[in-house]
């Protein structure tokens, strides 16, 4: 994850309390989604950014996951996201995200 | 309700779903978007 | 009449030392953790010049293989052996790093580049045999300095050292002590961009029937900015590069738009030619060192060579209609507007279905789409997926949503109307333009009727707007109507003389 974004995630978690935060991702594929999820839960796996070694354990979802999709207005979802469900490998994204959440999510 | 009243941090992707599109979407579930960004790997 | 695509050139410069010292992934890592394993072992993951030339996507970029031939090879391509290993290609060349450093020195007109004398002499003798480099330009390589002098400069001042095979062979000085816009770092990036643009221009002129003197205007569309602190980004790369390429009758300007820059610039060029303002306009851009090794960490983690080891460039000639070359149909133009929004379906609709619908065409009426042609060997291991394929899937998904095809036909749509990607991830370089050379040939050979060129840009990276951007246009077979014939003075005189003769005969006849 971009270093500046890591800095912002860290600062916002401190400001609002990590239990009040939800991170929503739009990554193009499973592995990238998993890496971003890992960054905001277990810490930056590349050890390059401000979240290296920082285990925030934030709640994190990809926007195409059913947990998010079920709670948002379906008309807006259709207009903004639905086409990409045909483009992205949503199953693979869900699999990667669930694995990371099960292991590292604290909230 | 998982999303309601949460502070949302959005990390979009230029080649996946961009930040503003996610923002439009999750706002309808009653979250407060506190940060939105779009990453680019190319 | 529509303007035409008269020619295209594509060049690469293999620059492994610049990957180490100038790519931002590496320079950032050096700032954070100079002792990191990644930096220590980086040189082991770099390719030799021979390996770089023998890489299938590179041979495709310079035109020795078609995208269709490339698609016949199993991915990842870095594991495949290429039949082609040539330096020269139908569209350009792959230049080795030492010669490219020489070209950088040639492109420096402010005495900012200092090359070590032996290196300068070696490079000069190599460039003497380069068919496109004017011998007069080689004088710039006669000013080599002793190595201790180069090392003293590196020690005393803020310069950018130049390396070849890991050794210091020169440096680039700052153009001002205080002005950050003229720092050695900025001058370095700008000279690299200029040099790769110049090489592209030389190949374009060398490979088309149009002479250097006939070029009226050049539009440069890279992602660099040149100027001083009072006008950072003032420009004008176009004119600076044209000067080096001997385009004595050209002026020009720079167009910017992130990765969409080239597509915007091509629209400008097409309009300038169609309106009759100019007859020959070149759109060109050099590459960027910042993006070298951008995804290097992912490549190294996956035991791959660092594939982002080339600075790239291209040049395209847009000319008045010659009756043969493919036409740029400027009546079918897609635009991502301020109001379009950033949802992927709105973005792709604004660039494809909406402009096509206006003229009664369907998405499947476009034979091939030239989208963001990034090489998947580079992007897939880095988590960005297969970028061109994702673009084709989006267009196909849009066709399915519009009931133009069945959802089950999506994969067929992608293979029929798409291409594999082969361009290096140099921002503006992969965006729509890499296919123009091939498209020109295929349209002229009547294998294709229409090609849509799409450029998309991530404007939000500049932090001035959250908006995305993009434009698209169509290339089509030439209608064959030929060049517009203006009625010349001579022909008018001849017409008058002929009718006077007729009239005189008529009078004679009356008298007789």
From TrEMBL, chain A:
Q: Please write the reaction equations for the catalytic activity of this protein.
A: acetyl phosphate + trimethylamine + [thioredoxin]-disulfide + H2O = glycine betaine + [thioredoxin]-dithiol + phosphate + H(+); acetyl phosphate + methylamine + [thioredoxin]-disulfide + H2O = sarcosine + [thioredoxin]-dithiol + phosphate + H(+); acetyl phosphate + [thioredoxin]-disulfide + NH4(+) + H2O = [thioredoxin]-dithiol + glycine + phosphate + H(+)
Query: GO: which molecular function terms?
Result: betaine reductase activity; glycine reductase activity; sarcosine reductase activity
Please, which domain of life does this record's source organism belong to? Bacteria
Record's GO cellular component terms: glycine reductase complex
Kindly state the subunit structure of this protein.
Monomer. Component of the glycine, sarcosine and betaine reductase complexes, together with components B and C.
Q: What does this protein do?
A: In the first step of glycine, betaine and sarcosine reductases, the substrate is bound to component PB via a Schiff base intermediate. Then the PB-activated substrate is nucleophilically attacked by the selenol anion of component PA to transform it to a carboxymethylated selenoether and the respective amine. By action of component PC, acetyl phosphate is formed, leaving component PA in its oxidized state. Finally component PA becomes reduced by the thioredoxin system to start a new catalytic cycle of reductive deamination.
Name of the protein described by the UniProt record: Glycine/sarcosine/betaine reductase complex protein A
Organism encoding this protein: Lacrimispora algidixylanolytica
UniProtKB/TrEMBL annotation, chain B:
Q: Does the keyword Oxidoreductase apply?
A: yes
Keywords carried by this UniProt record: Oxidoreductase, Selenocysteine
Name the InterPro entries for this protein: GRDA
Q: Which reaction does it catalyse?
A: acetyl phosphate + trimethylamine + [thioredoxin]-disulfide + H2O = glycine betaine + [thioredoxin]-dithiol + phosphate + H(+); acetyl phosphate + methylamine + [thioredoxin]-disulfide + H2O = sarcosine + [thioredoxin]-dithiol + phosphate + H(+); acetyl phosphate + [thioredoxin]-disulfide + NH4(+) + H2O = [thioredoxin]-dithiol + glycine + phosphate + H(+)
Superkingdom in the source lineage: Bacteria
Give one GO term, molecular function aspect.
Answer: sarcosine reductase activity
Q: Name one Pfam family in it.
A: GRDA
Function field: In the first step of glycine, betaine and sarcosine reductases, the substrate is bound to component PB via a Schiff base intermediate. Then the PB-activated substrate is nucleophilically attacked by the selenol anion of component PA to transform it to a carboxymethylated selenoether and the respective amine. By action of component PC, acetyl phosphate is formed, leaving component PA in its oxidized state. Finally component PA becomes reduced by the thioredoxin system to start a new catalytic cycle of reductive deamination.
Its family remark reads:
Belongs to the GrdA family.
Complex and partners: Monomer. Component of the glycine, sarcosine and betaine reductase complexes, together with components B and C.
Q: What is this protein called?
A: Glycine reductase
Organism annotation? Lacrimispora algidixylanolytica
From TrEMBL, chain C:
How is this protein named in the record? Glycine reductase
Q: Which Gene3D superfamilies match?
A: 3.40.47.10
Beta-ketoacyl-[acyl-carrier-protein] synthase III N-terminal domain residues: 254-323
Residue span(s) of domain DUF5940:
347-508
Extract the InterPro entries matched here: ACP_syn_III_N, DUF5940, Gly/sarc/bet/_Rdtase_C_bsu, Thiolase-like
The record's GO molecular-function terms, alphabetically, read: acyltransferase activity
